Amino acid sequence: MSDRISEESSPETYTRSVESRNLVSSTVLSGLFERTDMDMVSPDIKGEVMFSCNVPYCNENFGQENPINTLPLLNHYKNKHKQLLIEKVQEAIKSSKTKEDSILDARFLDSLTDTLSGITKFQGRSRVRPTSKKLSGRRQTGPSQEFCSPQRFKRLYTQSLIGANIPFDTCDSLHTRRMLDAGRFGLLNVITRELTMRELKQMYYKQVKRLRKEFKEHVGHFALTLNQWKVRSDNHFLGITVRFFNESLELKRYNIGLEHMKKKGENSQFLVNILHNVLRYYRIGDRVISISRGNSALMADVITSFEKGYFGKDIRDFDGDVTCFKDVADLTVKAFMAHAFPQEASYDDSMEEDTVTADVSNSSLHMHVDVKALPEKIRKLTRSLNKNDELGALFDSEVTIRKHTDTRMLEILKNENYTGWMSEYEMISCVLYFKKQVIEVYKEVGRLSSKEKTRLAVTEITEPEWEHLETVHDILLHFVDHTKALEGSTYVTIHATVPSVHSLLEIFTTMNTKCLPLTKPTISRGLAAAYDTLYEYYPIYEKTCGRLKILFIATVLSPEFKLRFFQNWEPFSRDLIKSIEKELKNLFWLYEKRYEKKRLQNGEICDGLTRIDNQAITVKRKKDVFSYLSKYNRLMKKATEIEIYLREENESSDFMEYYQRKKESLPILFQLAKDIMAIPASSAPDESLFTILSDLGTNVNSISCPAMTKMLAVVKDSVMSMKPGDEEPSEESSDEEIEIDDDQNLTDQFIKEIGDSGGDTKETDLDDAILG
């Protein structure tokens, strides 16, 4: 063949002819077909090209006219020589060429991704760099595709599913697979429900490994929370979280377990065994300082059983039972509302007529009857204004007028959503906010005929009833402030529990004046019932600390309260103050022994704030004939940390700021406060963390997946704490098994769940699906 034929058959010449007809690189057909320009064979045939398949024993030839249509040529290899095509792709990947300069740039490979198993590590260099420094993080110095292999994409995709609460079934949906097929070569092989669940398993054991390491390095104890969580009527879980302050006083909180309970009525010993197993798994079973839990009989029994079997490190006896403040507040409000809005007339009301004047008695009885019907009256009003066009138009008109002078911009009355007393408070608050507008609506309704009034079924709220609502609202507002403050999960709350309870008890006493039983008997009895209920759980005015020891100590360790809080308020007796101080010093002594032992092991001992070497200690002991009394001398010297702290004036600075300053001068007190202040006053915030897992914890067939749900509870912490640019360490590849003494029962259950949920993912014929 002449030089001219060879020149025109070169890749450069072929590129121009092919790409004018079909935008595919000339390298796509390189080595696949032999090209012959027919005008060089016969001058009578002009503009035609013959392509002959290079596969031995394949006699297929394709005649084409310029510009070349490559589609039938490529389909020939897809249909007849698919394995050879796969080998060509593998060679291209190993050659380290860019995607644009290899066969990988061919669009016809898209529908082959299901069969190209194992081709997932292509990392061709991209000419496009990240434009956002905020999102690219440390990767902004290199090409984006250099770090985006299909395996890395699988990890990021799994994290996105967990972070956004998207069920794993989404991976196998047609729309997801169409997106993956169009997005990047090789993604269809790594994104399936089965593979993302296996990625979850790897993430779980990585997180366990990190937590074990962090817990081992932590110098101190751990505060736990226990919560029961219900997915469905037949699925119950025990949620376990751990909290602690590190040496930098950063509050750490992790979910360490969401244990499946086969039925709600599991006995307390079963739950205690679960708790012990989880603590042993993380190797912190002997360093628990407290357990905050809900106010249920089952949880109380769990704590009792746990106390009996606990043998801790340094602090051997467990005395850290903390009842969730929110649960107690709910019971207290319930007791108040049972009297503030009674369902039926009580015996006490009928007896009041004999003990008070006729006018007051009749007024009280009338008020009681109105109050009984008041809740339903408010509900009917709210429903009517929101659903009735006529009343709604009147109400909207009044609200529009108010908008000109009010910046709060509330526009509608809130319906009660039956989620607890907070819902009732919001409904009452909203009705009072629109009091003037509601009264104007009543005036308009008053001008209607009796028939129209009956049809609208709206009964006017009287002035005494408005006054009753305002009083109830003011009382509930105190509960709202106290409950929301003590529900905080990102700051210290335990120290404010006793002061908050004292504040509420004072409010109940102050508001329940002598005349209140005569003017508002239901509210008076409600306040008395609320006082009794709250004091039943928090008997803070007794002569000894009792079961509230940990709460009293936390209050004293707060630099803004100390012992002076109890000394300045009359209800707290001198005996109680002495008891608190004694318990604090006893606990401090245990911490002192622990850290003294560590210092002795390191070859040093602490005499006040002076460091003494071993030689000096030896000489001193030789001369001291009363060495057997030395432990008492050391105790007296080191106990001055408590004395120094209590003698100092109270400070308004917060916990972190104060103890960071005192870390060197009061080292043992620092460690004690660090452990105590990590205890949450309420377990409710941790409970809310688990409720977002319900969609992720069940598959498309509504089969319960307790193992997967547990893994999600643990992994979600790390996923939600990620910041832009955060990534798993590169040395921890998702394909490598994490070497950890994993829970074999959990692993077996997880594998079973993958199988039950259809882990054998069926390949989807995307081309047929799109055409269909």
UniProtKB/TrEMBL annotation:
Its main location: nucleus. The keyword Zinc-finger applies. Residues 753-764 have a biased composition (Basic and acidic residues). One of its GO terms (molecular function) is zinc ion binding. Residues 727-745 have a biased composition (Acidic residues). Residues 643-693 form the HAT C-terminal dimerisation domain. InterPro entries: HATC_C_dom, RNaseH-like_sf, ZnF_BED_domain_contain. It is found in: Nucleus. SUPFAM superfamilies: Ribonuclease H-like. Residues 126-137 have a biased composition (Basic residues). The keyword rRNA-binding does not apply. One of its GO terms (cellular component) is nucleus. Keywords: Metal-binding, Nucleus, Zinc, Zinc-finger. Residues 126-145, 722-746, 753-772 are annotated as: Disordered. Pfam families: Dimer_Tnp_hAT. Coiled coil: none annotated. PANTHER family: ZINC FINGER BED DOMAIN-CONTAINING PROTEIN 39 (PTHR46481:SF10), ZINC FINGER BED DOMAIN-CONTAINING PROTEIN 4 (PTHR46481). This is HAT family C-terminal dimerization region. It comes from Metschnikowia aff. pulcherrima.
